[in-house]
Amino acid sequence: MANEALRATDDIKPTLTDEEVLEFCKTGLLTLEGVIPDSTNRWVFQYLDEEGADPHQLVRDERFIDEVLLHPAVAGVVRSLLGANFQLPEWMANHRLVGPEAARYWHIDAGSDFERACNLLQVFYIPQSNSLEMGPTLFLPGSHLVPITREDIERFGHLAGQVPTTAPAGSVFVTAYSIWHRQPDKVDQSTRNLLKWVYWRTTPPARDWNARPDFDFAGADYSYTSNYFTGGHRKWQSVPRVAEMFYWLCGKADDFHMVGGSGWPYSSSDPGMWSRSR
Prior knowledge:
By secondary structure, the protein is of the alpha+beta class. It has helices spanning about 20-25, 40-50, 60-70, 70-80, 150-155, 230-250; strands spanning about 30, 95, 95-100, 120-125, 140, 165, 170-175, 180, 190, 195-200. The protein has a domain at about 20-200: Jelly Rolls (Sandwich), CATH 2.60.120.620.
């Protein structure tokens, strides 16, 4: 394992569009299925299978940096959401399960503050395929903007709208740091690795992804619909939070002004919302 300084990221090109960034603001989750090649997945899995393997060492490994941390599909998303010169992780964990394991509680990670900002991204990578029997991590899209205490969230069980990370080997899940997540029951004898790390912002937010000049800020749909967030107050509360986060990412935080009542950012295109006025 190499011990060299963290790699510069100033030459990474963004890959997301306005619509894709807005979708991330709504869900707090972006899935890249099978983007890491099988050759990489095999050596990473073999390394993690070695006695005394330390996943933390991977953040300094030049091959892992090239093939995973700075893979164009992964780094392009990170560059889009965190801007130029984002910081590579300084630590890495592996949520490794061998054989059956009982389910764990829903939780949010330490330091979650549910800000309408995006200064860091929490990323998960599976070097092996995940099936339902392997206890794939569950995410609740849209939950990253719902303030809750760790103690309150632990009482929930199955939640409508939860998304399992059932995906092929080499899949990467880019998440807002405060997204709700948990491990369900693992019932088979296989080994499941789940590498986890954080990228950090180093520059002020700016709309420097693959933006288009005719994007309609006033007419965009900032609502998010899922089985869990469809109902009443949850959907109403999500709309201004999503809009504020999107404006912040665009570097337009000072331009975000709620009209109040049925006004912007609520959209007339959604039959469940009052008409927009701005």
